[in-house]
UniProtKB/TrEMBL annotation:
Residues 144-239 form the DUF306 domain. Pfam families: META, NlpE. This is DUF306 domain-containing protein. It comes from the Bacteria. It comes from Salinisphaera japonica YTM-1.
Length: 258
């Protein structure tokens, strides 16, 4: 996916407000949002592709995942953004990325199960229908255990392998780097997660080295985990707002990027 669109271009389209402080409090879902998690989907215009598909997942405790894909681009891949949401005094949805110092906050109005993108002046971008996300009736949901969690945008996925992890019975971790098998042990309780001695088989896979090293390092540093609909976020010690790694469970409605 053209990185030019990513969040910088989305900010240009929907408007970026002043960044929120990093200590934004965790809040319960307001009535205007209804039950959580909630997922909104839609396709925004794109200057040099067929459109930008957006999947926005809002979770309890004010967390969100925004997934973007340039449809018909020369090289399709997904851009993933995570952060916190808040409803401001005007009942607008404000999305603040975990790293908000540079990117700021995007604003959306809430209207009849829809989100409408707002510009930097808080006005709806026209034509409104082209900049609208619609709420899914049933959000996609996956369990932490016994789910294949795939790495999103593994740098060497084009080589043919698919990197994933799976938390199985009796504290056993299995998976693949796309070339080598992953194995290890884990302990999981509520949001706490630790992985002991993650290791791989020894097949020589120079093309998959980046993914393999990144996965192993993230697993070694993981101290917390959060499942948000069909996403798995791994975090370091308490206080770290940016995830170490993000995985996605495959689904027909929200496919894993190739």
């Amino acid at each position: 996916m053209p990185r030019w669109f990513a969040f910088a271009a989305l900010c240009f389209l929907v408007g970026c407000a002043t960044p929120m402080p990093k200590d934004t409090p965790v809040v319960d879902a307001p009535d205007v949002l209804g039950d959580l998690p909630a997922q909104y989907v839609g396709t925004l215009p794109c200057a040099d592709c067929d459109g930008i598909a957006l999947w926005l997942t809002l979770g309890p405790r004010a967390s969100y995942v925004l997934q973007q894909r340039a449809i018909g681009a020369e090289q399709e891949s997904d851009y993933i953004e995570v952060g916190t949401w808040q409803i401001d005094d005007a009942e607008r949805l404000a999305l603040t990325p975990a790293d908000s110092d540079e990117t700021g906050t995007s604003l959306w109005s809430l209207t009849d199960e829809r989100l409408v993108a707002l510009d930097e002046n808080g006005q709806a971008i026209t034509p409104v229908d082209d900049y609208t996300l619609t709420r899914r009736a049933q959000p996609i949901s996956r369990a932490f255990a016994d789910t294949d969690w795939f790495v999103v945008n593994a740098p060497d996925a084009h080589q043919g392998g698919r990197a994933y992890i799976r938390f199985g019975d009796e504290g056993r971790l299995t998976g693949s780097t796309g070339c080598n098998r992953i194995m290890g042990a884990y302990e999981h309780s509520d949001t706490m997660l630790t992985v002991s001695e993650p290791a791989t088989t020894r097949k020589a896979c120079p093309s998959f080295e980046d993914t393999e090293q990144s996965m192993l390092e993230a697993l070694r540093q993981t101290r917390r985990a959060r499942v948000l609909a069909n996403y798995l976020l791994l975090f370091g010690p308490a206080g770290d707002r940016s995830p170490l790694a993000l995985f996605q469970a495959e689904s027909e409605a929200m496919p894993v990027a190739p």
